[in-house]
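Supplementary Text 2. Reproducibility record for the structural model of the 171-residue chain.

All settings were left at their defaults, and a single model was retained for analysis rather than an ensemble. We include the record here because the model underlies the residue-level annotations in Supplementary Table 4.
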Amino acid sequence: MLPHPLAGTRLTLLPLTLKQYYQFICQLPQLEQELGLCYQGHPVEGAFRTALQQRYLKFLTARRQPFFHTLWLLTLPTEGLILGNIAFKGSPDTQGTIEIGYGIGEAFRGQGYMTEAVQILTAAALSLPSVRAVTAVTAQDNTASIRVLQKSNFFYTGASNVYLYWIKSSI
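Retained model, structure tokens:
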């Protein structure tokens, strides 16, 4: 069963059905028409498209956990816009940890939308008994994403040559 949309102060996070997820990747104009919303997020091409295709295949095989495998659209329903997307990168591991990833259209950066989306989806995940912590990985030079995680009360846990690692736990 598909999760319900999650509402925030300004945003609604809209979970996609399997069909809608496919449309997002391959038939975006049809999805926009079906939802009555206009997509203004990152173009669905290149590495982003490849990552979506891989996640879609996982969604096909993990239908019992759609909350963790669907793509959530950041929507402003009253304005008829889709600003970006947010998703988990699979099911929680045996310790109850799950990774979150996200992206937003350039025109909507720096306005607090992604912070709101991360806070909404993280709170929803941490309210589930199978989730004890949500993690995130950012490029060391992605100051906007770092700020989103800081404002969402994630804690910095370490770094590699390229990435910074973050966590927010239920305890």
